[in-house]
């Protein structure tokens, strides 16, 4: 488990990924350079020993002379000593008649006579089951029989070449390996320096108090400014959401105390066996108010949350408004109220969050029934070229122009109202989240509140 956890940590580390990638590139480069170094060493050793071998063949050719009509060789001891330091050396000298006058009879080379007469010819070969390098040359002797050309063949095994190749290549490969290790170490150091600002940012965030949601103080490198900016943006949104939640909790606590205190007082009256015949009705009303307030508080929190993460979909406003009206009007009222619905003549489709828009319309209708409509209430859908409006009209006293702005603020109530002060605030916030607005029109006996939304663009 520890090994797998460590492997996951390494895979998740950007520094480890870079080190692994650069290490792999350096390893491939080192292998390629090592192969090239080996090839170069082999070529250098071959050329060096070829020059010695060719020089030895020329020295042997220069030490051939005629004595009594016979080709004679005076072997060059210095040349043989140089060539035989690590290797076995074989040679053969033949006179113009093809008779071997010195050396090994079975040593031969496959090369045209013309090439041998023009200069030294070098060949790879096999002699007595050993790989050898062969140098051959021809020399013309005055007074010799035949065409006068004597042939000299000199062969050397490859041990000295291989030793020189290995010596040169091992030193070059060692240097390449050392440079690769140094390069990887330098890369690790550079990465440490490069990632130091990120480490400081991490330290600044981890050392903060839970309630510290201020932007990151240090100036980040240009390459990570976008990342730090995104983190700051997230912190700001989180701070706004927490502030909103704290305000909601404070408001809810404050608003719930009043109906709870009233219920407590009514219960005390019942406990004292008060003969007030309206006590139960008042208690029932207080409980209803509390239920309504609790529902609206939760709806308000839901609306604010959905406004931050809207889930818009094409919505038929005619159908939605009709459905909300049918569900919002209670089966019985304490007065006769004429309810009507007037849809728009043409199709009215908007991009909307159905849940929050349904709640906003329900609150407008409830407010109109509870605080407005005397005998008539109408819900009407009107469409213009760019907008669609859902209008809730009633024949009640309406809202004074000077109080309209105040009443769309949460928990602000009208004069003599026993409501929660959230209905109009919810409607206004939903309209704003949809890019629209809540507007009022008219006055006493002819008052309307309308949610106006932009039409969906096709």
From TrEMBL:
Location in or out of the cell: Membrane
Q: Which residues cross the membrane?
A: 18-41, 172-195
Sorted UniProt keywords: Kinase, Membrane, Phosphoprotein, Transferase, Transmembrane, Transmembrane helix, Two-component regulatory system
Which molecular function terms from Gene Ontology are attached?
kinase activity
Enzyme category, top tier: transferase
Question: Which CDD domains does this one have?
Answer: HATPase (cd00075), HisKA (cd00082)
Is-annotated flag, keyword Transferase?
A: yes
> Which ranges carry the Histidine kinase domain?
251-457
Coiled-coil spans in chain: none
Phosphoprotein found in the keyword field: yes
| Domain HAMP positions | 192-243
Enzyme Commission identifier(s): 2.7.13.3
Q: Matching Pfam families, A to Z?
A: 2CSK_N (PF08521), HATPase_c (PF02518), HisKA (PF00512)
Q: What is this protein called?
A: histidine kinase
């Amino acid at each position: 488990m520890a090994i797998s956890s460590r492997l996951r940590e390494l895979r998740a580390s950007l520094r480890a990924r870079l080190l692994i990638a650069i290490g792999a590139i350096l390893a491939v480069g080192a292998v390629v350079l090592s192969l090239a170094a080996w090839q170069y060493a082999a070529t250098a050793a071959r050329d060096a020993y070829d020059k010695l071998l060719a020089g030895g063949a020329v020295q042997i050719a220069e030490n051939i002379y005629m004595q009594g009509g016979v080709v004679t060789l005076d072997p060059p001891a210095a040349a043989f000593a140089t060539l035989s330091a690590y290797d076995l050396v074989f040679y053969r000298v033949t006179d113009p008649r093809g008779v071997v006058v010195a050396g090994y009879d079975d040593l031969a080379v496959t090369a045209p006579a013309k090439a041998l007469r023009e200069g030294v010819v070098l060949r790879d070969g096999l002699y007595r089951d050993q790989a050898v390098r062969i140098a051959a040359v021809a020399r013309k002797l005055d007074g010799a029989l035949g065409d006068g050309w004597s042939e000299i063949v000199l062969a050397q095994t490859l041990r000295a070449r291989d030793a020189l190749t290995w010596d040169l290549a091992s030193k070059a490969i060692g240097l390449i390996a050392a440079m690769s290790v140094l390069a990887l170490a330098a890369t690790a150091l550079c990465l440490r320096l490069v990632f130091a600002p990120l480490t400081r940012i991490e330290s600044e965030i981890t050392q903060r108090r839970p309630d510290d949601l201020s932007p990151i103080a240090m100036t980040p490198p240009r390459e990570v400014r976008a990342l730090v900016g995104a983190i700051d943006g997230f912190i700001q949104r989180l701070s706004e959401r927490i502030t909103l939640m704290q305000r909601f909790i404070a408001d809810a606590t404050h608003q719930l105390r009043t109906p709870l205190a009233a219920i407590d007082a009514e219960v005390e009256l019942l406990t004292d066996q008060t003969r007030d015949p309206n006590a139960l009705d008042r208690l029932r009303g207080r409980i209803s108010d509390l239920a309504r307030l609790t529902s609206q508080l939760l709806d308000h929190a839901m609306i604010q949350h959905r406004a931050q993460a809207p889930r818009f979909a094409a919505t038929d406003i005619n159908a939605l408004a009709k459905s909300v009206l049918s569900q919002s009007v209670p089966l019985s009222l304490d007065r006769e109220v004429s309810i009507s619905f007037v849809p728009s003549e043409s199709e009215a489709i908007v991009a909307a969050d159905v849940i929050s828009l349904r709640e906003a319309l329900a609150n407008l209708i409830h407010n109109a029934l509870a605080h407005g409509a005397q005998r008539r209430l109408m819900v009407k859908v009107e469409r213009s070229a760019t907008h669609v409006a859902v209008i809730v009209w009633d024949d009640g006293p309406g809202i004074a122009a000077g109080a309209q702005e105040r009443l769309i603020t949460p928990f602000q109530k009208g004069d003599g109202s026993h409501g929660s002060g959230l209905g109009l605030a919810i409607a206004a916030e939903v309209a704003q989240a949809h890019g629209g607005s809540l507007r009022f029109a008219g006055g006493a006996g002819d008052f309307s509140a309308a949610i106006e939304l932009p039409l969906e663009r096709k």
